[in-house]
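User: Hi! I'm working on a homework problem where we have to compare a predicted structure to a textbook description. Could you give me the structure for the chain below?
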Amino acid sequence: MSNITVKGFDYVSFWREDTVGVIVLRTDSSGKISSSVLGELMMAIGKAAIDDEVKSIAITGQNFVFCKGLLDTGDQRSYIEQARALASTLASVEKPTFALINGDAFDFGYELALLCDRIIAADGSRIGFYKEYSFVLGGSVTSSRFQELARVDAKEGSNCDLIVNRDTFLEDSKAVINKSRGALMVMRRRMAMRNLIEALNMEHLTYLLNIYAGNGAADQSKKGGIN
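Assistant: Happy to help. Predicted structure tokens:
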């Protein structure tokens, strides 16, 4: 790998791997990330978006974990404002985006992956939502592309787009990315995300109402029957 990192980041790493801007989520020992990652993730996406040598953007994890969720949400209003900004940023970026799921991707992690144009998973990865998870990144729209939303093993066409060998995960993923038709993927994303703002409005309003009502993370926007 190249070692072109961006200084000043505490929760993500970022470098260019040939023509791919690679963003790595830094998880703790439990596989979760701090809510502070949202701002840094947007900064890294922004840097990749304006770099002429970066043709595609890939988000992945470390130590065989993509992201098992958030450690905390911090201030609730700030959290949903940042979630809204992150979802809008990924939906509007003019370069194809890929989620490279190198291990378990649950809840916030899987919802983040669903914002990307394609999800490439390493074999043996587990993907999905806990029943009580509340969508905050437009999952009520993006999750419609797949049939299986419960936490199960990755399966092509069911909860991800493609599965590749874990031992050669990055190399195989790069080969797929380099063969992709970027302009077409961006166009398809625009069509798929046309209702994203309305979805975010509903998700965040319901989230805040339930917080104020003392219902914690219970959210009517989540899919029924997710285990």
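For your comparison, note the following. The chain has seven helices and ten strands. The chain has one domain: 12-212. Good luck with the assignment!
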